[in-house]
Design a protein that fits this description.
- The complex is a heterodimer of chains A (395) and B (230).
- Chain A is α+β, with helices and mostly antiparallel strands and 395 residues long.
- Chain A folds into two domains: 185 residues, no CATH class; 183 residues, no CATH class.
- Helices cover 58% and strands 17% of the residues of chain A.
- Chain A has a six-stranded mixed barrel.
- Chain A is elongated and about 105 Å long.
- With 230 residues, chain B is an alpha/beta fold.
- Chain B contains seven helices and ten strands.
- Classes of the chains: A alpha+beta (395), B alpha/beta (230).
């Protein structure tokens, strides 16, 4: 008897007991769906965390962290990056942009209103690389940077804070005692970790003129190729440490290590929750075995008839095995559809990406088939061993 | 065709051993129509199971078509049942969810026949028992007599050398019984060996030869030689 005959027979039997089949499959459906959802959300979260940390713009931040020895020698500097540093960094191969800024907290006044804000003096590359878009008004021009014009772009939160949400374009605010004209407002940030903070950006040259800050406090490199982030970061620290004659004061964070660490954590989390979901799959499998055992008892007479007509033990075994595999396989496929749908809904409503990889789907199909085989063997074996004479007499 | 030599069969019930068959030797030739009779508990069902290769004898040899099947393994017995024997049961034993046609196809499914061949031969077999217009009916849409005809069609579809019927009219009324027995006679006349197990003398009358079983042994006809066995 061909396998196809067996499959047709099994499908018929599944169809003949619709309600029972659905209830049996339910355990598998829920189990598979749970595994798919957990893994999809876990992997999606991991991808999102990694992109948040590494930034989408191929950037790497250079830190200034002098050793205690150097601190004791009084070598600490508040704004450790000089303009010469920036020029040198820009000279490094494959560096597409050097973002430099210097910021401090200050009070901004608009007539009687007052707001606490961070004032960030930025260079030309800052807005682009940080993907900050000017929504209203205009962005800085080259002339603004070169002339050190006292113009400012404010964040959306700042607009709320100081201007009561009204358009601030053209208003003159005072930072300390210095008047600055607001020329633009930034787009509200989106994303999981983006909080609208109260910020004011001015050209770095204006910052120098107004507050007397000579150097930059923060430097971020943008490189052409994501794979080059780490080597170029290392190169930049070597250059800076040489320029300043320091041992290891200029450092970069090893993004790869962090990304790996996050990957490990999320993998462990996904594995733990996935295993719990897997247990429900196991329970579902036991449910299949249970029903198949009942089905064997219920169909004792059928088995007897088939045997008297010449069915061998192997043929009966295969019949019941195929039936439980079909049950779990259908359940698995429904579970995949349900799981994928749920993962999609979660990512749609929670703004959390979900990644359904074909490996997980294939794994779920194979695993549910495996469950079908594992938990179908006992009932199928029982069926195949039934004595034809007893089975024919069975009422 | 059937050659039983000193067949015994014993079962162990707990610590006790029960000898159901105590040495039966019997020859049934090809083309015969034989009835096996005996009171209940006589061992006639066990004898039928052994002849039908559903069971193996404890001792003794059984040649079916010159082949010793008494020590066959399960798998080989299944093949013998499939190829050489057709069963007809008192309770019809049709699969309730299959149409008459599919029921008749079953032995050929296990024989590995192609779908086309199965359907063709199943239709022929059903036509032979007069059910050509009932092929797509489910068993519960058929009368008792029709069900038994389907069962007979199923029994003869693999062209077995032997049809074994266990109380084939036990669940049928008299008129239908006569029709079914006539069908057996017709099949016998076409060359099929038929063995009917029954306790009804009316059924046994259709046979060319009657074998009596009593207490696990072959006995004599209690009707011919009255007082002897009573």
């Amino acid at each position: 008897m061909s396998l196809w005959e067996n499959i047709k027979m099994a499908l018929m039997s599944v169809k003949a007991h619709k309600m029972r089949s659905i209830l049996t499959m339910l355990g598998i459906i829920i189990g598979v769906a749970a595994v798919i959802v957990v893994v999809a959300i876990g992997q999606g979260g991991e991808a999102m965390l990694k992109s948040q940390i590494a930034g989408d713009g191929n950037t790497i931040e250079v830190f200034y962290q002098p050793s205690e020895e150097e601190m004791q020698q009084g070598k600490w500097e508040e704004n450790p990056f000089t303009q010469e540093d920036i020029r040198q960094l820009e000279g490094i191969e494959k560096v597409s942009n050097v973002v430099a800024s210097s910021s401090e907290f200050s009070t901004a006044n608009l007539r009687d209103e007052e707001a606490e804000t961070s004032i960030t003096g930025i260079n030309e590359a800052y807005l682009d690389v940080n993907q900050l878009k000017v929504e209203k008004g205009r962005s800085f021009t080259n002339a603004d940077f070169l002339g050190g014009r006292r113009v400012a772009i404010v964040s959306a939160a700042m607009q709320e804070e100081l201007f009561d949400g009204k358009s601030p374009i053209g208003e003159i605010i005072r930072i300390g005692v210095q008047p600055v004209e607001v020329i633009g407002v930034l787009e509200k940030p989106t994303g999981l970790f983006a909080f609208g903070s109260v910020e004011t950006y001015i050209p770095w040259t204006a910052m120098r003129n107004m507050l007397g800050t000579n150097n930059y406090s923060q430097v971020t490199l943008q490189v052409e190729n994501a794979d080059d982030i780490q080597p170029i970061g290392e190169r930049a620290t070597t250059v800076l440490n040489q320029l300043h004659d320091t041992e290891d004061s200029y450092q970069v964070i090893n993004m790869e290590e962090i990304a790996q660490g996050i990957g490990q954590v999320t993998t462990i989390m996904t594995t733990i929750i996935g295993s719990i979901a897997g247990i429900s799959l196991l329970v579902g499998g036991i449910g299949v075995m249970n029903i198949m055992l009942v089905s064997v008892t219920e169909r004792t007479r059928e088995i007897g008839i088939r045997k008297s007509l010449g069915a061998t033990r192997q043929q009966i075994l295969l019949q019941f095995l195929v039936e439980s595999i079909i049950l779990t396989l259908i359940g698995g496929i429904i579970g995949i559809i349900l799981g994928a749908g749920t993962a999609y809904l979660v990512s749609f409503f929670a703004d959390w990406p979900s990644l359904i990889s074909w490996q997980v789907v294939l794994g779920a199909v194979l695993f549910s088939m495996l469950i079908g085989i594992a938990f179908g063997l006992l009932p199928a074996n029982k069926a195949s061993r039934l004595d034809p004479i007893d089975s024919l007499r069975y009422e | 065709m059937i050659q039983l030599e000193e067949i015994t069969k014993s079962y162990t019930l707990g610590k006790e051993s029960v000898n159901v068959l105590r040495g039966i030797s019997l020859v049934i030739n090809s083309g015969e129509f034989v009835a096996i009779m005996g009171p209940s508990g006589s061992g006639k069902s066990t004898l039928m199971n052994i002849i039908g290769c559903l069971d193996r004898p404890t001792t003794g040899s059984y040649l079916l078509n010159e082949e010793d099947v008494s020590q066959h393994k399960d798998q080989e017995l299944a093949k013998v049942r499939n190829q050489s024997i057709g069963f007809v049961f008192q309770q019809f034993q049709l699969l309730p969810r299959l149409t008459a046609l599919k029921n008749v196809e079953l032995p050929m499914v296990y024989a590995g026949a192609s779908k086309k061949e199965r359907e063709e031969r199943a239709r022929d077999a059903l036509a032979k028992v007069g059910l050509q217009d009932r092929v797509e009916h489910l068993p519960n849409e058929l009368s008792g007599g029709q069900k038994q005809r389907v069962a007979i069609a199923r029994a003869l579809v693999n062209n077995p050398s032997l049809i074994l019927a266990d109380e084939p009219t036990g669940a049928l009324d008299t008129a239908t019984s006569v029709a079914i027995m006539d069908l057996f006679v017709q099949l016998n006349q076409e060359g099929t060996t038929i063995v009917v197990v029954t306790h009804e003398p009316e059924v046994a009358e259709y046979a060319n030869r009657v074998i009596y079983v009593r207490d696990g042994l072959l006995g004599q006809n209690p009707f011919e030689k009255g007082g002897q066995t009573r």
